[in-house]
């Protein structure tokens, strides 16, 4: 059989990497090639994803290989899957990265891999790719390496010296789901590897604070990803799991990936994917916990009897409708914590309110300049010239403040 060309292998392995969502590049240290070397962690390129700060970033996102000795039911690259297989050498991935960077196609590399031969062998190949880039090409751009928790702990730790960010996927929200759908993987082993990375990151941060010559270690921290909709986990389960991961391992991000049906799928998997809006609602709930001060329990209070977040409205509005007794809030007196719970008010809007009310009383017209939708805010606030009276008690309040059904525009409408 003829070996696939470089272009064919790139097509196969770039497509195989699309199921990994955790490729944002924010949070690392700033480096550039002004004093020598190649690449930068700054700048712009062809946009493939967005960083949490809204910046467009472009990464060469590929697998080292899609061969795999594991047989995870939900994975398109499982050993029993009938897909085209391909493999790169570490040198080939390094050469591709440098070539694409010099053509201004990318600004960094996101590298993952199927497990070939053994976990240790694969981890060594991933590390060697990063080593070639850093030491032989003096590449100073962004590198995100996907760790293999089954590999030796020393190998996993070594990767942090070459990568800006490292990540280990927890795969599924519950241990029961992982045992059933990924029999080759172990939840304690995954969490043990994540804990080892957490310790190494903290140790090197401490060393860097004491000694300027101490080497950097994964300056952008670690992240993880879990698949949504492949097992029976509810949104409340997922929110609780994500919160625990943030607390235990100091993660920068938890990414969610809606389960996508795959060819020749196992009978234990759902026949269709969950609605993509469910993935979006989970990201919104994650944002509430990370930036709005909501506790996991508060987000879980926005779910229904089955533990699912509503799909037609965002979690923040769902929580406010469930706890109407906490509103309306006087924007001229309420604390920042409570103002962040007003539907339609973001962090910047709340900070602007707090700054403005030091000098004068806030009126409804002032909020109109700060919020995207004044109609969404009105039932939940009191200003110097506005009080919602009985609006908050209306049975149809959800319809009033919720998003309007989308309408198809007519191209030749009169």
From TrEMBL:
Gene3D superfamilies: Aldolase class I (3.20.20.70). SUPFAM superfamilies: Radical SAM enzymes, RuvA domain 2-like. It holds the Pfam family Radical_SAM. Keywords: Iron, Iron-sulfur, Metal-binding, S-adenosyl-L-methionine. InterPro entries: Aldolase_TIM, DNA_rSAM_put, Elp3/MiaA/NifB-like_rSAM, Endo/Exo/Phosphatase_dom_1, rSAM, rSAM_sf, RuvA_2-like. GO terms for molecular function: catalytic activity; iron-sulfur cluster binding; metal ion binding. This is DNA modification/repair radical SAM protein.
């Amino acid at each position: 059989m003829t070996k696939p060309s470089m272009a064919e292998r790139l097509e196969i392995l770039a497509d195989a990497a699309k199921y990994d969502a955790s490729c944002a590049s924010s949070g690392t240290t700033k480096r550039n090639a002004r004093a020598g070397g190649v690449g930068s962690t700054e700048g712009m390129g062809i946009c493939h994803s967005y960083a949490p700060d809204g910046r467009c970033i472009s990464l060469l996102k590929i697998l080292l290989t899609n061969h795999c000795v594991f047989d995870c039911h939900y994975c398109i690259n499982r050993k029993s899957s009938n897909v085209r297989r391909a493999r790169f050498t570490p040198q080939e991935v390094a050469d591709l990265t440098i070539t694409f960077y010099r053509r201004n196609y990318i600004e960094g590399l996101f590298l993952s891999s199927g497990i070939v031969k053994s976990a240790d062998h694969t981890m060594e190949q991933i590390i060697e790719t990063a080593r070639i880039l850093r030491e032989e090409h003096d590449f100073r751009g962004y590198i995100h390496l996907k760790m293999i928790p089954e590999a030796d702990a020393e190998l996993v730790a070594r990767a942090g010296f070459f990568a800006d960010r490292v990540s280990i996927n927890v795969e599924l929200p519950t241990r029961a789901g992982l045992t059933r759908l990924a029999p080759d993987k172990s939840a304690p082993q995954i969490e043990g590897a994540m804990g080892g990375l957490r310790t190494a990151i903290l140790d090197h941060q401490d060393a860097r604070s004491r000694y300027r010559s101490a080497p950097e270690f994964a300056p952008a921290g670690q992240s993880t990803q879990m698949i949504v909709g492949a097992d029976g986990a509810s949104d409340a389960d997922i929110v609780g799991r994500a919160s625990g991961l943030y607390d235990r391992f100091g993660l920068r991000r938890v990414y969610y990936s809606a389960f996508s049906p795959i060819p020749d799928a196992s009978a234990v998997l759902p026949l269709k994917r969950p609605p993509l809006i469910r993935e979006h609602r989970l990201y919104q709930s994650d944002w509430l916990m990370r930036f709005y001060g909501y506790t996991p329990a508060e987000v879980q209070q926005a779910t229904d009897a089955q533990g699912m977040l509503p799909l037609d409205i965002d979690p923040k509005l769902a929580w406010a409708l469930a706890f109407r007794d906490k509103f309306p809030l006087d924007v001229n007196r309420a604390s920042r914590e409570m103002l962040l719970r007003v539907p339609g008010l973001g962090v910047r809007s709340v900070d602007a309110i707090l700054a403005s009310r030091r000098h004068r009383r806030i009126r409804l017209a002032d909020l109109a300049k700060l919020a995207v939708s004044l109609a969404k805010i009105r039932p939940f606030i009191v200003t110097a010239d506005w009080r919602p009276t009985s609006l908050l008690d209306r049975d149809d309040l959800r319809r009033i403040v919720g998003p309007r059904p989308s309408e198809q525009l007519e191209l030749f409408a009169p």
